[in-house]
Write a structure and sequence with these properties.
The protein is α/β, with parallel strands linked by helices. It has a single domain, classed as 2-enoyl-CoA Hydratase, Chain A, domain 1 (Alpha-Beta Complex), CATH 3.90.226. 46% of the residues lie in helices and 14% in strands. It contains ten helices and nine strands. The strands form two sheets. Strands 1-2-3-4-6-9 form a six-stranded mixed beta sheet, sandwiched between helices. Strands 5-7-8 form a three-stranded mixed beta sheet. A hairpin with a 2-residue loop joins strand 1 and strand 2. The longest helix has 23 residues. The chain is globular, with a radius of gyration of 18 Å. The model has no long low-confidence stretch (mean pLDDT 93). One of its GO terms (molecular function) is catalytic activity. It comes from Gordonia lacunae. Belongs to the enoyl-CoA hydratase/isomerase family. It holds the Pfam family ECH_1.
């Protein structure tokens, strides 16, 4: 099976992982997530790599989860580190799947022992944020947008619920309540991204930043990253993200009870209406 993540080396000591499903706007199915996890693991074990960049092929970074492939299965039967009950019917099986394939992978990526940089262009929608937010730094192109419209599906937000930490509590509520996208400039002002650069300069700027980071001692980088992450956790970050995930699963349970599906079936139409109203690209 062909991997849905392509690995490149744009500079010495720098690996770039490219989400490679452009025909689906890099919508995530279980294979893509586990291909990405495998690629992150390979880079983490490769002593020649000091910095990892995550980007996407095609016009968008990621349009989120592929709602046409939302089965509660994971490929190749890996050990379920974070989820128990995989394959069980109803909410139990879905909870196990999302603990492992969403919540679990994001936690692992956040704590990779090497610096990571998210390179965002085009749209990053819902599950696309789930890939960006665990990264240490985020660089955005001028025309990039960021949105989490999944309240329309009867859910609280994307599974990796770090919205408040990324944009502040009032903007997080507006973002979730309306489904409206943040512009790159807004994301920069809120501290969600580190830099905004011209679309044509995104690759070069990101690789140059990665090259500068790679010049630092690897162990010093690892210690600095662990220290910042520990500081966030001491402020309640991990507890807050976990609490948001519980609410997400409650939304799935409610939808299953009402509609027999994990998402509100009218959600896609509502999101399209919101997109037209907001002139969403």
């Amino acid at each position: 099976m062909t991997s849905l993540v392509r690995r490149e080396q744009p500079a010495p000591a720098v690996a770039r992982l490219v989400l490679n499903r452009p025909e689906r706007r890099n919508a995530q199915n279980p294979q893509m997530l586990y291909d990405l996890d495998a690629a992150f693991g390979d880079c983490a074990r490769d002593d020649s790599i000091k910095v990892i960049v995550l980007s996407g092929a095609g016009p968008d970074f990621s349009s989120g989860h592929d709602v046409d492939e939302r089965e509660s299965t994971i490929p190749a039967d890996p050990v379920a580190t974070f989820g128990a009950g995989l394959g069980a019917p109803g909410v139990e099986g879905r909870h196990a799947f999302e603990c492992e394939a969403y919540r679990g992978l994001c936690r692992r990526w956040r704590d990779l022992p090497k610096p990571t940089i998210g390179q965002a262009h085009g749209r990053s929608i819902a599950g696309g944020l789930m890939l960006l937010w665990p990264m240490d730094l985020i660089i955005a192109s001028e025309t990039a947008t960021f949105a989490d419209p999944v309240v329309a599906f009867g859910l609280n937000g994307v599974e990796y619920f770090s919205h408040v930490w990324e944009v502040g509590h009032r903007k997080a509520k507006e973002m979730l309540f309306t489904g409206a996208p943040l512009t790159a400039g807004e994301a920069l002002a809120l501290g969600m991204v580190n830099h905004v650069v011209a679309d044509d300069d995104l690759d070069e700027f990101t690789v140059d930043l990665a090259r500068r980071i790679a010049a630092m001692p690897a162990y010093g980088l690892r210690l600095a990253k662990a220290s910042v992450n520990a500081s966030l956790d001491a402020q309640g970050y991990e507890s807050a993200v976990s609490a948001g995930f519980v609410q997400h699963m409650l939304g799935h349970a409610s939808n299953l009870a009402q509609y027999g599906d994990i998402i509100n079936p009218d959600g896609a139409d509502l999101i399209r209406q919101l997109a037209r109203r907001e002139q969403y690209p």
